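Holo prediction — PBG.
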Amino acid sequence: TSRLPESRQNHEPSTSSPLTERPRRLRRTRALRALVRETSLRPDQLILPLFVHESPGEAEISSMPGVWRQDVTRAVERAAHGQELGVSSVVLFGIPSEKDELGSGAYSEEGVVQRAARELKRQLPELTVIFDTCLCEYTSHGHCGPLHLHGPGGATVDNDAALALIARTAVSQARAGADVIAPSAAMDGMVGAIRSALDANGFHDTAIMSYAVKYASAFYGPFRDAADSAPAMGDRASYQMDPLGGYREALREARLDVAQGADFLMVKPALAYLDVLRSVREHFDLPLVAYNVSGEYAMVKMAARAGILDERRVVLESLGGMRRAGADAIITYHALDAARWLREA
Ligand code: PBG
């Protein structure tokens, strides 16, 4: 302070200020900052992912500290804890003990997520239960649909054969009590196939949250460890979107899913695609979801553990950024921590 001119030290008003606008006036106190805050984040806008396995008990996922593969009992406990914190939605991922070529565990009435959902609905009837609808966690080869072995360029996923199995999966999930079906297989015509199958079986009120804009991202690495769903050969570049694609492709995917009856749209991953999220927000009026994926979570967790980042502030800042970019809701592995921090704030 000794270096300030005498007049400022004494708080003497400067009489000839050339500044007519001083944004800092509205940042002066905590209450003023809160009064003019433009972006809100609430626990009920967060969706908690749950990995349900068939073994008893739970095991922490090494690449995702704080996230567990759990049996049905533990998954229900975790969802109940979320509800107490104000997180009213979960999305289910299954880790079956048996996998096969056609991913039959995905559409079995006794499948692991079907059993989990029945129990969640029985014990927590107010909870919104969303199912990730895909085959990659259930197929022996780890792809999102059955393989067409002799296609041009070798093994590729057979789009139309996948549609039938995905629609069947969605119906079995609706029967198990799904509020929302969230197809993530990136197959053409997926939303339409699911909508017709649901309607044909009387599930007119089961909503579809389409992973409409889903990139072939390296940020899914830890999830594939967790779900043991990395493709045994090849990658997902022939069905998921090119990470360096642009707005036209993203808007086209969103438009097709709206036309086929989607109730929500999603952009995934979130952080590297906030511009795409904003663009989809501006072009469509459906509720929009951002998926804050496993790799995004792992980066924050590892940096926080190394003492490099303040986890709480970084998480709330990132989720707030997704909201500002246009997300109504966010699927995030940080859901329970974030809900707790939001309540304390
Ligand atoms: C299934 C699915 C994946 C994720 C969500 N649903 C994996 C993939 O597409 O490879 C990734 C989620 C995450 O990384 O958190 N298709």
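READOUT: Residues 115 and 176 are 7 Å apart (CA to CA).
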